[in-house]
Amino acid sequence: MKDLNNKVAVVTGAGSGIGRALAQALAARGCRLALSDVSDTGLAETVKSLGEAEVKSYRLDVADRDAIYAHAAKVRKDFGQVNLVINNAGVALSASVREMTDEDFKWVMDIDFWGVAHGTRAFLPHLIESGDGHVVNISSVFGLIGVPKQSAYNSAKFAVRGFTEALRQEMKLEKQPVQVSCVHPGGIRTNIANAARMGKSENAAGLRKGFDKLALTTPEKAAETIVKGILRNESRILVGPDAWGIEAINRLLGSAYQPLVERFSRKNLYV
């Protein structure tokens, strides 16, 4: 996909953060947009920011498998084709394995993994049909390394990475006209930390303040990086200097990265 002009792009979680910035970046390149979110208010604000772009908005809970498949069919009917799907919607949880509840664990997996998996599978036939498709799934740097108190989030984001990398290979081997990219953002200045659920012993205010200090990249810069990665057909799109650093450490040290994370966590997470 060398040119985004007049392509139909689907973005989940488009009501704020990276999703909104992606909608704006894609609109600037001439995409026709199918945007969804669980927040009607946030989605309306995104649509308003897009000016004269061709856009349709849809309320969608990506934790609802049947709703995702119905959404895919509706978008195909509304636009006549689907070229680009960005499974971006996500949530966060900070809690130890001992403390997190089954409900919270399921909440994260239903949105951050199953929302991506069902979103990919629901739209894949339409992407193949287009003859020029691209799937972009948002993982995280926490899909590259394990971090204390992020076991649920790690589980989802590692799963997204494995699912997406396997799909890319399948599309190549089956000679299907669909490219596949997995995105690993570092700290992005979005509302995800403020909206995160916390374990009962977590210092919520302290953790959110700490995240704000580590969020090095704006949503707008993240979106530009992702769009450039799409146009280059990159299999792994790293977003932010921290993402590049973590990926390098992981490559160089393998599992020996863990003592570094333990030292960081002892200072910043166990206080």
What is the compact description of this entry?
It holds the Pfam family adh_short. This protein is an alpha/beta fold.
What are the salient characteristics of this protein?
single chain, 271 residues, alpha/beta, Rossmann fold, two-stranded parallel ribbon, 9 strands, 51% helix
Please tell me about this protein's structure.
By secondary structure, the protein is an alpha/beta fold. The chain has one domain (8-268): NAD(P)-binding Rossmann-like Domain (Rossmann fold), CATH 3.40.50.720. Helices cover 51% and strands 15% of the residues. It has helices at 17-28, 40-49, 65-79, 102-130, 151-173, 204-214, 219-231, 241-253, 258-268, and strands spanning 8-11, 32-37, 55-59, 84-87, 93-94, 133-138, 178-185, 197-198, 236-239. The strands form two sheets. The chain has a seven-stranded parallel β-sheet with strand order 3-2-1-4-6-7-9, with helices on both faces. It has a two-stranded parallel ribbon with strand order 5-8. Helix 5 (151-173) links the parallel strand 6 (133-138) and strand 7. Helix 1 packs across helix 7 (219-231). 45% of the residues are buried.
Topology overview:
Blueprint: E1 8-11, H1 17-28, E2 32-37, H2 40-49, E3 55-59, H3 65-79, E4 84-87, E5 93-94, H4 102-130, E6 133-138, H5 151-173, E7 178-185, E8 197-198, H6 204-214, H7 219-231, E9 236-239, H8 241-253, H9 258-268
Parallel strand pairs: 1-2, 1-4, 2-3, 4-6, 5-8, 6-7, 7-9
Helix pairs in contact: 1-7, 3-4, 4-5
